[in-house]
Design brief:
Elements (H helix, E strand, L loop, with lengths): L13 H4 L9 E6 L7 H10 L11 E7 L7 E7 L8 H13 L3 E6 L18 H15 L4 E11 L1 H9 L16 E4 L14 E6 L7 H9 L8 E6 L16 E3 L2 E3 L3 H19 L2
Parallel strand pairs: 3-4, 3-5, 5-6, 6-7, 7-8
Antiparallel strand pairs: 1-2, 2-4, 9-10
Length: 287
């Protein structure tokens, strides 16, 4: 499947929803992509051979914009993952930072493409690329090591391909088993739902439009119908009349068609989805 151009962090139309929120200053930070811990077999062979395990070198160092509330903390935090078109504009990112900071949360907006010299991955990839899942864990581990962040209260939020990545990061029995540090919750805006996402290791919410042609809501309904009931709670919310990228205020009054799919802003759906996200984060963080 060709993946539609991601829109993404305008995701919450934050400047509109929280116009009174104070500005939040960003700090550009750098952190390594996570690497997989050694397997039990690798550890056993190293012991038997009397050889130390060679440390894995991260393939690349990522960049991100970090926003934090005033004070010493420790604060809950959110890792934000963009879609297949890459990082949104700085104005959109700053608006998102202000909105999360107003809730008392830190926000780390991860740029997966810039450090790799990638412009977009919309026509070439679908699903949750493994390198981006490791980006998410790199961000989690980086935040968990900061003195003003509560390492046990970090959630992941993703949009389109970033939403696939967020769900892939918390897929029960998946990559999450390789890390001692875990996300507390996951929020996925218009992901492409596949059966394997149906079992999650932490509470998760999927927010999608009824008219989404790129990432169909029916695929999410089918996934939910096939769930075994194992794992953490997974909630699906479908917004009537909403297309793909319904949160992108950039599309206000000027919908786009990309790869044959319609992208269109829907203010009612965007507001309702932001309310759902805030409720999910409050439940996860206890504040």
């Amino acid at each position: 499947m060709r993946r539609i151009v991601g829109t993404l962090l305008s995701a919450i139309v934050m400047a509109v929803l929280l116009a009174a929120a104070p500005e939040a200053a960003a700090e550009t930070v750098r952190f390594p992509v996570a690497t997989s811990p050694p397997t039990p077999l690798q550890e056993r062979l190293a012991r038997e051979r009397g050889q130390p395990l060679a440390a894995q070198s991260p393939a690349i160092e990522l960049t991100g914009e970090l926003y934090r509330p005033a004070g010493a903390g420790p604060f809950p935090a959110v890792v934000s993952l963009h879609g297949c078109a890459g990082q949104p504009s700085r104005a959109v990112v700053d608006a998102a930072g202000a909105a999360y900071v107003a809730l008392g949360y830190a926000l780390l907006v991860v740029d997966s493409f810039g450090p790799r010299g990638v412009t977009q991955r919309c026509a070439t990839e679908s699903g949750a690329p493994a390198d981006r899942i490791m980006d998410a864990y790199g961000a989690l581990l980086y935040l968990a090591g900061l003195p003003f962040i509560d390492p046990d209260r970090i959630a992941v939020v993703g949009y389109s391909q970033g939403a696939d990545t967020a769900l892939g990061a918390v897929k029960r029995g998946g990559i999450e088993t390789q890390f001692d540090r875990k996300f507390r919750a996951a929020i996925a805006y218009f992901p492409y739902c596949v059966a394997s996402y149906g079992a999650v290791s932490v509470p998760a919410v999927i927010l999608i439009g009824e008219l989404d042609e790129a990432t169909p809501a029916r695929a999410c309904r089918d996934m939910m119908a096939k769930r075994s009931g194992e794992g953490a709670p997974l909630r699906l919310v479908v917004y009537p009349g909403a297309h793909h990228a319904f949160t992108s205020s950039r599309l206000r009054g000027k919908p786009e068609t990309t790869y044959g799919y319609r992208n269109e802003y829907n203010e009612a759906a965007a507001r309702a989805a932001w309310d759902e996200e805030r409720a999910a984060l409050r439940a996860a963080f206890g504040r």
